[in-house]
Amino acid sequence: MNAGAAHGTVAGRTARSAGLVGCLHCGLLAPMGETDCLRCGARLESRFRNSRQRVWAWWLAGLIVYVPANLYPMMITDTLLATYSSTIIGGAMDLVTHGDVFVGLIVLIASVMIPVGKFLAIAWVMIATRKLRPGGAHRLHRMYEVVEFIGRWSMIDVFVVAILAALVHLGSVAGIFPGLAAICFGASVIFTMLAALSLDPRMIWDAADPNAQDPSA
Amino acid sequence: MNDRSSDAIGPQAAPSHDLIACPQCDWLHDVGDVPTGTRARCVRCRTVLLAPRRGAAATIVALATGALILMVVAVSFPFLDIAAGGLRSSASVMDAALSFALASGRMAPLSVIVLALIVVLPVARLCGLIYALGPLALGRRARPYAAQAFRISMRLRPWAMAEIFIIGVAVALVKVSSLAAVGFGPAFWAFVGLVILVAAKDTILCERSLWRALDRAA
Ligand SMILES: [Zn+2]
Ligand SMILES: [Zn+2]
Q1: What are B99-150's pLDDT values in tens digits?
Q2: Measured between beta carbons, which residues in chain A are less than 8 angstroms from residue B114?
Q3: CB distance from A67 to chain B under 8 Å?
Q4: Residue in B18, B41, B99, B184 to test binding to A, most A beta-carbons within 10 Å
């Protein structure tokens, strides 16, 4: 449905090129230079200030803590026979080989493929927007939307450890304890979420628009 | 909260309230009244600009109130228990959040974060929505600070992770099912219900349409 799409006189161009700044939350427009939205009170920014630097800073912070997240144990299992500590990848592989293949794959996707894919996708969007051919924005924007939507689901792994460590206290028979990887991994998920939130999607469309000029540049 | 009839800000005329900039690509659209049940999409990037629904505020307030009640049940009753070899162990939602802090002081910050993601922020979101949209649902004037409450609720959206927690619980149950017999407490079912209500609420919630409605009720 394309109900009530562009049919006005100012439509058919970007708000910035019309000297306006649009509120990201309620959609209301204000003259360029206004700092707060009149309707909802949100801060108005035609384009996020220092978006690139902030994205790269959070991206790097997320990548740095992702390394110990994979080296330290995520979970330590105590049983009558042995004490066994597993890393993120090890725990998922255990599920695939000994337990449930389907659930193992979900964990593998959530805790390995999504974080790694997210680092690559954010870096790709950042590098590709330096020079984008006209019409190239659609695919890049789709990639950004997927990253923004899916990134928070990586937190599954932290919650799995939280509930297992709270639940499995069966005296000397079995006990489960969280490992240091949990806090590193949780921090990594939060940092990459902040990287995605610092990325201004309008930047992708500007990069593919030959008429877009940054008035502040 | 502003007066719709105010016609000028300084030398430049205030842009019309029908005008919307796409939040994803900045393209301008002149979108007047969109019929309820239909959607207006950005012509450039296809982002949904407006998707008003009949009685949206009332439905959202009803779903949020239900979810809030279920959250109270979910945090105050037993969540899960396991039994193996004559031994029993149980956990509440609070135990799950606090498990990192109990294991090691170094991981206490993670417990604070988990508690925020699965209880505090979802509750704050629900309260904010009920406070801001409640009067709209009853056809009354907006409450003071309704705009702030609604804005903060929407800003918290990515950080409220109740639905991710319940998937994590499902994965944990698969891991533990080979080790012990699992029993479900009332809090477990309350949490599942809460996730369903929150998901239903979020699918009908169109932020920009509700801002227009709040504006009219101010
Ligand atoms: Zn606004
Ligand atoms: Zn758009």
Answers
A1: 999 988 899 999 999 999 999 999 999 999 999 999 999 988 988 899 999 9
A2: 158-159, 162, 186
A3: no
A4: B99
CB of B36 within 8 Å of a chain A CB? The answer is no
Number of domains in chain B: 2
B44 and B68 together in one domain: no
B152 touches chain A (CB under 8 A): no
Angle at A129 (CA atoms; ends A124, A133), nearest 5 degrees: 110
Same domain, B17 and B122: no
The answer to whether residues B123 and B185 belong to one domain is yes
Beta carbons of B153 and B132 less than 8 angstroms apart: yes
pLDDT at residue A42 tops 60 = yes
Q: Looking at chain B, list the stretches that DSSP marks H as alpha helix, in order from N- to C-terminal side.
A: 56-76, 93-103, 108-115, 121-137, 146-155, 162-177, 186-204, 207-217
Q: Which domain holds residue B129?
A: 56-217
Single pTM value for the model: 0.89
B61 in the same domain as B26: no
Whether pLDDT at B12 is above 70: no
Residues B103 and B198 reside in one and the same domain: yes
B24 and B73 share a domain? no
Residue B113: closest CA among B127, B128, B123, B98: B98
Q: Are the C-beta atoms of A167 and A93 separated by less than 8 Å?
A: no
Arithmetic mean of pLDDT over chain A: 87
Position B15 scores a pLDDT of: 73
Complex confidence, ipTM: 0.89
- pLDDT of res. B64: 97
Distance B125 CA to ligand 1 centre (A): 18
Residues B60 and B37 both lie in one domain: no
Of the candidates A10, A167, A169, the beta carbon closest to that of B19 is on A10
